[in-house]
Design brief:
With 279 residues, this protein is of the alpha+beta class. It folds into two domains: 117 residues, GTP Cyclohydrolase I, domain 2; 153 residues, Alpha-Beta Plaits (2-Layer Sandwich). A hairpin with a 4-residue loop joins strand 10 and strand 11. Helix 5 packs across helix 6. The longest helix has 15 residues. The protein is elongated.
Length: 279
């Protein structure tokens, strides 16, 4: 990726815990490292295709002077997110806000808070076996596409499959899609859980019926483990109803641990296990 750096942009604003900071104000210094693909601008020498760093400086100035935050952490996190939302050419924002006049009472240079925000490409499995299944899938994808900071890029065909596990229930409709998001894995998981809950009944039984089921399969090439989320999805290599639609849009995608492609995982599963896909 190409990089633009803005160093120590001076901004007088009203952020801080103490009343004198929010009333009187003080100087802040903002530095940003902005990454993206600037190839078209470089080759064409056309300002219309370039990232306007002057506009970005004015945006950061306007953002920080029109708001008051107690914590630098909040100001830094919110501003970095807004830069990605408002400047689509940016893929990654590394932001640092310095506070050289912090009320510490001892000699120092500055206090600063830094954060990194970027766009992520995420592959997701989607399924439903309650009610109008096709409509549930469509509504789920539409809801994700409407979320700030999220964009659905590609959607697979819909496949019918037998239920996974030994729970007596209707057949599923399954698909997969690729999305772009500025959310972290845990933030995206929280959003998906809310969408599943809002969709209606289901999720009361392990491997049971679902109005809407959303599973994160890949998140860039990250390996992520927490109590409630593992990425890549730990059981995807055993699920043809995941791999079949995923292979339609990402047969080339390589598992960051096993280094097998989605197509390889699917072919190995077909050779070793009965399939759940029936259409």
């Amino acid at each position: 990726m190409d990089v633009i750096r803005i160093k120590d942009l001076a901004i007088f604003a009203h952020h801080g815990v103490y009343e004198r900071e929010t009333l009187t104000g003080q100087n802040f210094l903002v530095s940003a490292t902005l990454s993206g693909d600037f190839f078209k601008a470089a080759k064409s020498d056309n300002i219309e295709k370039a990232v306007d760093y002057g506009k970005i400086c004015h945006f950061m100035h306007a953002y920080l002077t029109s708001r008051t935050y107690k914590l630098l952490e909040t100001a830094t996190d919110n501003l970095s997110r807004e830069l990605l939302l408002n400047f689509q050419q940016l893929q990654k924002v590394e932001l640092e806000i310095k506070k050289p006049e912090a009320p510490i009472g001892l000699p120092f240079n500055y206090v600063s808070v830094s954060t990194v925000k970027e766009r992520h490409q995420v592959y997701v499995s989607i399924g439903s076996n309650i009610g109008d299944k096709n409509k549930n899938l469509e509504n789920g994808i539409e809801a994700i596409n409407k979320l700030e900071g999220c964009k659905v890029l590609e959607v697979s065909s819909v496949f019918k499959s037998k239920p996974y596990g030994n729970v007596d229930q209707e057949d599923f409709l399954n698909g997969a899609f690729l999305m772009e998001t500025i959310y972290s894995p845990q933030e995206l998981l929280k959003v998906f859980k809310e969408l599943e809950l809002n969709a209606g009944k289901g999720h009361l039984t392990h491997w049971g019926p679902r109005t809407l089921d959303l599973d994160i399969l890949f998140f860039d090439d990250q390996i992520y483990d927490s109590r409630d989320l593992q990425i890549p999805h730990v059981d995807m290599a055993n699920r043809d109803f995941v791999l079949v639609p995923l292979a339609e849009i990402a047969d080339f995608k390589r598992h960051p641990v096993t280094m097998k492609t989605v197509r390889q995982m699917l072919e190995e599963l077909k050779a070793s296990s009965p399939l759940y896909i029936i259409e």
